[in-house]
Queue: 2 jobs
Job 1
Amino acid sequence: MKITKIRLEYLQNEEWYTYETFLIKLIKKTGSVAVALAALLALLEQNNVDANAALEIIRKSRLTEDIEQADLLRDRLIGALNNYVRSYLHDIDPAKQRAARNLMIVIDHYKNMASAPQDQESGMIVNFVKELEEKCADDMAAISLEERKDQLKTVNQQFITLQNQRSIDTGDQTTLRMVGIRRDGNELIRYIYSQTEILLKSAATPELTQFANELDAENRRVNGNLHRKGSNGKDSPETGTNE
């Protein structure tokens, strides 16, 4: 049995912490599974404690809610902009059709912006807007896209400003610490995936099989959520069985 893998880097910090917490509880639910994965479980539990401590500082920041709202707004604006351009692909005016086709080339190049990690999304939006402004000015004018482009540009800059301010408020050390915690946690989670698959081949038991099935089901559910998040007018990140 191959366990479905999650693109862990696509999860936001709280989503990632929730998933890690779920995995710990799932392992501990069955004694024989906890014993088989004991060494990895101990390391994962400590990583989970560290993640919670780092996130607690971020949660207490007065800016966190504003940042999350700005992130949601720019995701919606991306979807709205993409759908707006697509609506002209079959316009009765050939000039507008051509403009929409040209703009879709740029849109498709940045199709996973909204589902990317927050920092990565910020940079992708900056590049996306710059490419529209430098290469597609006439096409934007043909279908009156400038206002929607400017809205996305403004909200993205607001998000960047808020996030920078939170880094000052909470301290750069906390932000950097969470990056390291996630890196270590991702490595442990991937080890658990691979170790479970090895055990299923070499020493499968009903309990281990049940654990693997529940893990696979949760991973598929999480991947489904990532897919839906990325499908608001654009394609989703890859969610196959390999990471």
Note: The radius of gyration is 22 Å.
Job 2
Amino acid sequence: MTVTDNPQIPLSVRETEFEKRRGISRMEIRHGFAQVHVLSIAGETHAGRLAVLAAIARAEISIDFLKLTPSGLSFLISNDVAERAGHALREVALKWTIQQDRAIVLVHAVNIRDEEGMIARIVSAAIASGITLEHIGDMHDRMLMVVAESDAERLLRALAALAEAEGNR
């Protein structure tokens, strides 16, 4: 019995766990996205990027996961607005693609950026799974990976194996 569980010890002395344990704490998949890549924009790149974003805003399309590329930009949208996005992009982009049926795989881990090697181990496990990672991003407590919808469960299994090997799940 620990101090936390022992009813003989007054509540004021018992420990309360406020922080999550280090390492991977959970994983999830968010479905229903399309990946937009604007590869070529007419005119100056900065102004072209703004024109693309303005056209998408006029079409009343919400974006996620915005990334700037050397000659354009990319972002995620909901699958159900992909056709509308295509119409908006025809106005302002020279070359673009929209790949539907994408998913975001999220890996939650406390202080992921501060845990030495954790991001590298997660990315290594993802690459070793043979799945194409279309985008990777991170926050203070999670990592996000965009993959084809058909690969999301396989990636989740590979990451679960990593978490188990590290004693985190």
Note: The chain has a mean pLDDT of 88.
